[in-house]
Design a protein that fits this description.
By secondary structure, the protein is mainly β. It contains two helices and 28 strands. A hairpin with a 2-residue loop joins strand 8 (about 160-165) and strand 9.
Length: about 450
Amino acid sequence: MRKHILIVLGLLLLVGAGIVTWLAWPDTAQLPVDQVVGRQPTITAPRQQTIPTVKVAKAVGWQAGAKPSVAPGLRIEEFAGGLDHPRWLYRLPNGDVLVAETNSPPREGGGIVQKVMNVLLGRAGAGVPSANRITLLRDANGDGRVDTRTAFMTGLNSPFGMTLFEGQLYVANTDALVRVPYTEGATRITAKPELVIKLNPGGNHWARNVIPSGDGRTLFVSVGSASNIAEGGMEAEKYRANILQVWPADKNWRIYAAGLRNPNGMALNPANGRLWTVVNERDMLGSDLAPDYLTQVEFGDHFGWPWYYWGGYPDTRVDPAYPQLQQYSKRPDYALGPHVAALGLTFANEAKLGSRFGNGVFIGEHGSWNRKPVSGYKVVYIPFGANGFPVAGAKPFDVVGGFLNADGDAQGRPVGVIIDKTGALLVADDVGNKIWRVTAR
């Protein structure tokens, strides 16, 4: 009898192990990334996962003088090194560059999910405490390397986006948009920041960006979701997964566009002043879904999150459903591929990198943690046409790569991208703790 019981228990354990293995087994992509890009990407059937695929490149940094690779006709050199998790860049009118040395605020809660998240963040190079600092970098002699570095602002709260507007510098902390008076050429600001508006802080997507709108009176502020698909309830997502429009003169604001899971980089198209953004889409639908995207954003747009993706494909995991929204969910303009983690965005109109890069956008793809094989980990360029949209049929063009070494480890990960005063492309690398400078040969 005891023998039979042991056999039954063994079979139950075997079945249980099989179920766990089946649930946890990583989902391998069935499509190459280049089939899930462009204006008409291939959208496969979802492969829902109880446990996400985990395939994150281990952060190792740049060894023995190694550096990223670039497209033919370009060269890349270090602009600044020894930084502390540099994420975002902003160019001041005199050519000085501000860099936000920052990271997620301390994450609340415990349990196995948070422990696993902490392990993944550490492996990806994002487990360090936030420096909560904006540093000023100055290339006074024009040789393409920083010769003056100062702590421009300190004591911030996971700062990210920065912009000048009507003589004041606005900084997007994770929990608030704040501002300080700015004097051109200043190398340090000691004034206490003034609160403009509060923002719901932290969550899975903690970084807030800010840029001026085209009307001369308002600012755009991006606020990502707290979760993957609002699994903690929509109350936790209040005023999140949005781009806000802010009137700084009287500190009022409204929701400009919604249903954007994690909008990050924002920029105005210099051809017509229209707002564009890059967005990180949802997880745990498999390695082929859903594509991150680049899109123009108009007032009142809703891009479907959490109920729909890519213009109306339903996510049946979201409860309660919202069928009335399906016909109003706006389809993005350009897919960037699944899980590439598109963060940085800048238009190329000021770049002096050759005729190939005369009209389009540069995008920093931070790289996937939940796709097999990995995606992103590079800077790409997307050409635009005279109509103000990406060229029909155009695929992303790799501009900066080599962030992964031969073993698949991350030597660096690109985030913010801007054009400097000379027309070179600057790339913030938060794993390599550097800023790279790309010029024409």
